[in-house]
Design goal:
mainly alpha; 75% helix; 17 helices; 0% strand
Length: 353
């Protein structure tokens, strides 16, 4: 009993903290809503104050930039905070336990779904891969997770929903998950475990994971704030850069040119978009504003979705990082399988939409 906290002390310590956190959260959400509501008129007034007309290419580009930068950053702030709270329920150890020992098809589906709400970035690809493989997660299931986590992440879905509506967001989520699941099943059935670098299987998992701590409401709010600060600090340069590119396209690229270059009539536009996207290094926050500008200039939805998927799922930096654990042959198979899926998505949507 020496280390036990008296029962009459616990409510007095927990409840006020929860109420304070709830009050601060409510005030922050109200301020967020007011700021978001006033963005459009503020951007218009600032553009006019600079002596620019929205009818000119420069004025159109500057107005786009001044409106989209705070808009996207505000959306990211809200979304990343919310997902940070959700992620407090999904520790990496729990994810590995859920996926370990799953059958190939069911495991790939579950892995793709878990990837949407599980923390992931290119720098964590190697430790995640090692942890999954050494925990007994099949190779194909692991690849489904590694694909879904960056490609169908909460930032991409939230921005697509806010900028284009639920139909485009649902299309992207459905096709992205389908590509992740299909690629995992194909790679799993090819039985390519021998093409993983041998040292990976020699890594010890370190025994059983420590028991999970049950978090309070205040702890989960803190987790959301920490995620918001960390992720925004990492992605804001990509956001500003992506919006700057989008602003240039919005203001200066003729609509007829973009429609001919990335329109549905050009059969070569989808593979070209994928080939352009792979060497680029960005994430959903940086590429969505570019996608918005391309669609606004007449680019076909399928071509633009293929471009976005290739940038996020097949980025060259991530492939370089994965080379530490995968042989060149396995990386080539990975790129071929995922690339084929992305091409199919692009052609399908250009055909039916």
């Amino acid at each position: 009993m020496s280390g036990t906290v008296p029962l009459d002390v616990v409510p007095h310590r927990k409840e006020p903290a929860a109420w304070r956190e709830a009050a601060v959260l409510a005030a922050a959400l109200a301020a967020w809503g007011l700021g978001y509501w006033r963005l459009a008129p503020a951007a218009g007034r600032l553009t006019a104050a600079l002596g620019l007309s929205p009818q000119t290419p420069l004025g159109s580009a500057v107005g786009f930039f001044l409106y989209e930068v705070p808009k996207v950053l505000l959306l990211l702030t809200l979304v990343v905070f919310g997902v940070g709270v959700v992620r407090s329920f999904f520790a990496p150890e729990r994810t590995r336990r859920i996926l370990a020992g799953r059958r190939e098809t069911a495991g790939s589906v579950l892995a793709a779904l878990l990837g949407v709400v599980t923390p992931f970035c290119s720098c964590s690809a190697v430790p995640l891969f090692i942890g999954f493989v050494t925990a007994g997660v099949p190779l194909g299931v692991t690849f489904s997770f590694l694909l879904s986590a960056p490609m169908v992440n909460e930032v991409a879905l939230a921005l697509l929903l806010a900028l284009f509506g639920w139909k485009v967001a649902a299309l992207y989520a459905g096709t992205g998950l389908a590509v992740a699941v299909a690629a995992g099943i194909v790679i799993g059935r090819l039985r390519l475990e021998g093409w993983v670098e041998p040292w990976v299987y020699a890594v010890k998992t370190g025994g059983e994971a420590p028991p999970e701590v049950r978090l309070r409401f205040a702890d989960r709010v803190t987790a959301g704030r920490d995620a918001m600060r960390e992720i925004l600090a990492r992605v804001w340069p990509f956001v500003v850069g992506g919006i700057a590119v989008g602003a240039g396209i919005h203001g200066y690229v003729p609509q007829d040119f973009m429609a001919s270059f990335m329109g549905r009539e050009a059969w070569w536009s989808v593979p070209l978009a994928v080939a352009i996207g792979i060497p680029l290094y960005s994430n959903a926050a940086g590429i969505v504003p570019v996608v918005q500008a391309l669609l606004g200039k007449g680019a076909a939805l399928g071509t633009v979705l293929a471009f976005m998927m290739s940038v996020i799922a097949l980025s060259l930096p991530e492939l370089v990082i994965l080379r530490k654990v995968l042989s060149v042959r396995l990386i080539a198979v990975f790129v071929a399988v995922v690339g084929a899926g992305i091409l199919a998505v692009g052609y399908l949507f250009n055909l039916v939409l």
